[in-house]
Amino acid sequence: VGEGFARESRDTLVESGMALASDLYKAMLLSIVPNAIVDIVTPADVDTSLPEGVALSSYDGVAITGSNLSVLDDSNPSVRRQVDFQKEVFDQGVPSFGSCWALQVGTVASGGEVRINPKGREMGFARKIKLTDSGLNHPLYKGKPPVFDGFASHEDEVISTPPKSEILSGNHVSRVQAMEITCGKGTMWALQYHPEYDTGELASLIRCREERLIRMGFFGDSESLHEYTRKLDILREDPQRKDTAWELGIDTDILDKNVRQLEVRNWIESLVLPNVSH
Hints:
Elements: H1 7-15, H2 21-32, E1 62-64, H3 77-92, E2 96-99, H4 101-109, E3 113-116, E4 122-131, H5 133-136, E5 147-154, E6 156-160, E7 165-170, E8 178-183, E9 186-191, H6 199-208, H7 210-215, H8 222-237, H9 242-248, H10 252-255, H11 257-260, H12 262-272
Parallel strand pairs: 1-2, 2-9
Antiparallel strand pairs: 3-6, 4-5, 4-7, 7-8, 8-9
């Protein structure tokens, strides 16, 4: 797992009581493949390295997390190092997967372009994500409804797709909500939304960014923000609370982990397990 947050931001997350993105990803992967060996690396950091004696090519898959960085900030060494890391993953032919920041890093690493979304931030839930014709027949979405919602928090979007890529889903906010990228010897399946989140994690993220979200108009005041996150926390404790789910306009595509994380399971079953080293 490649942690997308730089060290300073990771420290801030911990101080705020939030889980690290890489820990969320590791937990998700282990829930799907309990006997997997999952290492965490921090490619944003100048002093990062793989475990001693382990080569990147020896991994059966690489998953990249979200981040608060922007690939548009290409003067930032933490950004450049992560783009270079994804290029190396492609060159080594290791299947890769990721969400949000990972989609944007994979895009830039393979020759595409990203911009700030003129429609503004997509926050909380990406609504009515619709599979493209390619997505309807793609193994990433095997068993997935043709239209669904997902957790989201991003301002950047893919504007120019890489030379060897397919858009697999999109919605009214972002034309690219999922994409397959082929580059070098590698293939990446990447999402703009966050299958690793649950409602409690979204509540923590909203509280962490309280001032900014009120300033951006997502909430009228602190009281309304905290009432909203209280309901999200209720659903984390009891996803069967039909009344609260109805109030927030969410359904099993958000609340049922098996539906929410189906893309990750499909990636593992389609690209990782067939090539597992024995």
